[in-house]
Amino acid sequence: MRSVGILSLGCKVNMYESEFLINELKKHGYEIRKFSDVCDVYIINTCTVTNTSDVKSRKMIRSAINRNSEACVVAMGCFVEANKDLEIPGLDIIIGNKDKSKIVSLLDEWFLNKKIIKKLYFNEIVEFEDMYINEFPGRTRAFVKIQDGCENFCSYCIIPYVRGKCRSKKIETILEEIKDLVNNNYKEIVLTGIHTGNYGVDLDINFHILLEEIVKIPGLRRLRISSIEITELTDEILDVIAKNKVIVNHLHIPLQAGSNEILKRMNRKYDLNYYFDKIKKIRRIRPEIAISTDVIVGFPGESEELFNQTIKTVRDLEFSKIHVFPYSERKGTKAMLLDGVVPITFRKARARELLNVSRELEINYMKKFLGKQLEILIEEVKNGISYGHSENFLYVKVESLLEHNNFFLVEIIDINYPYCIGRIV
User: What is the pTM of this model?
Assistant: First the structure.
């Protein structure tokens, strides 16, 4: 029996794909080990969203090669797509974002011939590569990848160039996959993709149609959307959210910048007025909803004044959490040609300041639920303490031994950041 260690870097789509690889390899007799163990095969599902991602991807490839020089080392994904001339001594199989599902046959070929295999298609990907998962061992939350690719072409982003055009999984396949997961006792399903809200653009259907079908699935307790653009939260989608409590009280809606000047430079498809108006509409139908976001700081042209405007904007929008990213230059993107480059030291300082604001906003949101009752899905139990998330993604700690992967009603009695402290009702 050959052993394999798999490392997934970056986004939830990569996480889903890596879980698919684990399932496929187990079916074909591979022993799944930790990536840090000595294995016969190492697979690194890489990321290239920032310079840091590139550095980590390359470092993890080299660490696998150094751990066992006799192993078959596989690099796949976005870092590979962005570096098509990648050559590292000891790297045996190189795959982009197509043919990941063929991992078993590729490994069979390598063990037979011991020759380097390179599968790159130079953005010729035109079909959705079907993957299907019916279990996520050890997890209470299951991910379902519904689409791939992005055509937004934000000026800072390399992802459209490495993931290709938008393409979607057939609705029938998605529904069957979710039914299987629910039947296997997964209470919460997370829909994920590179451009999730653009689902169906190639199938002549809309995302709201998919949501309407999913919420009908018997036994599904929670449905979460991993991320969605503000421009894709159509009236039809908001109507589905308003009418179906299965869809959780949390949306992650990227903002990216808190000034119209920087939004325009980023080639985002909205201005602040549009964003504020849509958030107001969402809160009218779900008054206590958690809205988290992404913000990039230090983008070319971001003066101190514009950064301060971003601080004001995120406070006014009252986000429940902000994922903060210092701007990272990506070769091949339009932002590389922009003037007004912000020094890296300024980017890092602004990121720290915005993270402090995020913590303040998180605590403010938590305080709204003091004395209120929330249903918690228990995800971890250790040392007599149970941990889980509410539907609005509050992380709750309960000093009781509670059953894993079950729901419990708790009263929020205190806050000890990053936890809310709960007591069983």
Answer: 0.95
